[in-house]
Design goal:
Two copies of one chain form a homodimer. By secondary structure, chain A is α/β, with parallel strands linked by helices. Chain A has nine helices and 15 strands.
């Protein structure tokens, strides 16, 4: 029995290529006392992973060359030598880009598959959902009646931001990269309006979509969208800065927007990382899980099949090719027929 | 008797020139019932005035073409037909670039010349001092033990920021435009270090001056200083955005810094305007006035003589030519011999 893994083979300069990853068949892990052996079902692919491929000082250690790529996972426990888990349990963890893992269960959380599909623990009810919740409410301080703009609006985080904004009484305006994605967020997710960031008249389109200006801009991408929003800020506007995915493959780093609109509007840009806000997880689940169960808060998954497909799917995600929360199905999900 | 005034004659494109201003001898104002007639002693020159010369939507109305330039003033009451004021009173107000004014005393505040020199009502104990206080403490949330960097460090606002930071137990690092100004803030004002923004190795010099990184950057100028600071931010750093004077004459507006350091450091840039914080004036005076009287908080004035000198002094200020709080003495100060 082998454990297929995807390891970081080379640090990318610019956009990652398949050669930056090595697909390696390692011996399957053996289980020790106190450990839990699990088989990965879903691997989450997220933009933050691009940063971990760089050898740069940042908020988290880079992935070492030769190490398995980092990543959130949903797995099934195959054998447990720890009293808190038993075979057949579903767990969410950070097992990375591989088929198997065995370790003490530090950081593993058991999932109840009757609450929501287990894959949602990597999306709408997992880290991306919590990111949306914290960024919109704790950092962005969105209030009923305000206008919230979110970029990467059809993505794992953006889709939750806009729907939460609506549920909180805000006007929700999405920015996405294609007509299909714009249609999706307005028709399926109930956003009030959507604008394509490829629209050459982006600024005018956004202005038309935000007749009362912008109070909160939830920033996932950087670049032209942020430029356009800066000209539409209301007094006291907040820009929770969650990601700048348009820049992750770009060196030297491009400049940012001129900051005079922050000054004249007493507005702010505030970076945040979800890892600082895990204490909000219970409040998030209490509030958001019922909306997911009732269908008031919808989600879309973009699932690719098999670990070998992960590098190409990841590369595509950085170019905006995914449509919905990007997951890799590494082994069959026994809860889905 | 005439009232010499300086009016906005033309909207500047780029740096203002003397021809943008008109020096006009108008009839002196006459006093009406309920009004207070006063003679201007000091006119304050401040960077915000450059913004008012543009015909652009901003936080305050532009000065209309042909109108007297806006500005804070300290004056002596010559005749009063209002019960709250009497001849000989000193008042601070917004009478603008002119020798005389008469109006109902809305917005006029009486000054006690025994508390501090009356000119300080335009500087260390006036709007610039309050700007420093609010920006450092309410927006920047500076705490003892932190490192505070301030640009335009020898200016009216910056000098107070650095000294307040020291008085609050912070490390204070100034950025200024000449060796004289750097020497002044370290030797005379007690800053821990100072760096010239003309230093070609600015980033390295700033890094050496901030061995523990930067927790608060009080931003007055923009451009290369902000770029350099962005690479030195600590986790949770705050950047109160008070001004961007290096850009006020520049069109098109230059880009800003890349924002990835805000993300990785969970840091923020927050614009503010002192006019939103006048409710902090009493607390500011209670805390800061005693330090000014005791000499623990020092200030420097750069006084030019005569209203006619105001345009050139203002033009020079935007290039960093002043050294200390820039004032125009329009008529003799009877409290100074």
């Amino acid at each position: 029995m082998t454990n297929r893994q995807i390891r970081l083979q080379r640090r990318p300069s610019g956009a990652p290529t398949p050669d930056d990853f090595a697909i390696v068949d390692s011996p399957a892990p053996t289980i020790e006392d106190g450990h839990v052996l699990r088989r990965t079902i879903y691997l989450s692919l997220d933009p933050y992973m691009r940063g971990r491929m760089n050898d740069a000082r940042s908020y988290a250690k880079p992935v070492a060359l030769g190490d398995v790529m980092v990543g959130g996972t949903v797995s099934e426990v195959v054998e447990s030598r720890h009293p808190s888990f038993k075979a057949g349990d579903f767990v969410v963890g950070m097992d990375g880009w591989q088929q198997w893992a065995s370790s003490a269960p530090t950081g593993l959380q058991r999932l109840d598959p009757t609450v929501a599909p287990i894959s949602t623990a990597l999306g709408v009810l997992g880290m991306p959902g919590l990111t949306a919740y914290v960024g919109l409410l704790d950092i962005g301080l969105a209030k009923s009646g305000e206008t919230v703009v979110v970029s990467a609006a059809s993505g794992a985080v953006g889709a939750v931001v806009g729907q939460l904004a609506r549920l909180k009484g805000c006007r929700a305006v999405g920015v996405a990269g294609s007509k299909d994605k714009c249609d999706y967020v307005t028709r399926d997710l109930g956003f009030d309006a959507a604008v394509s960031h490829r629209d050459p008249a982006l600024r005018a389109a956004l202005s038309a979509a935000c007749p009362d200006g912008v109070d909160v801009y939830f920033e996932n991408v950087g670049g032209v969208v942020l430029e356009a929003v800066m000209g539409l800020l209301n007094r006291g506007a907040r820009i929770p800065l969650c990601g700048l995915v348009s820049q992750y493959n770009v060196r030297p780093l491009p400049p940012g927007p001129n900051l005079i609109p922050l000054l004249t509007n007493r507005a702010r840009i505030q970076g945040f990382l979800v890892m600082d806000h895990f204490d909000r997880y219970d409040a998030f689940m209490r509030e958001v899980a019922p909306w997911v169960r009732s269908g008031e808060l919808r989600y879309r998954e973009d699932i690719v099949e098999g670990l070998d497909a992960a590098p190409q799917a990841f590369i595509g995600m950085l170019e905006g090719k995914n449509f919905g929360k990007l997951l890799v199905r590494i082994s069959p999900d026994p809860t889905r027929q």
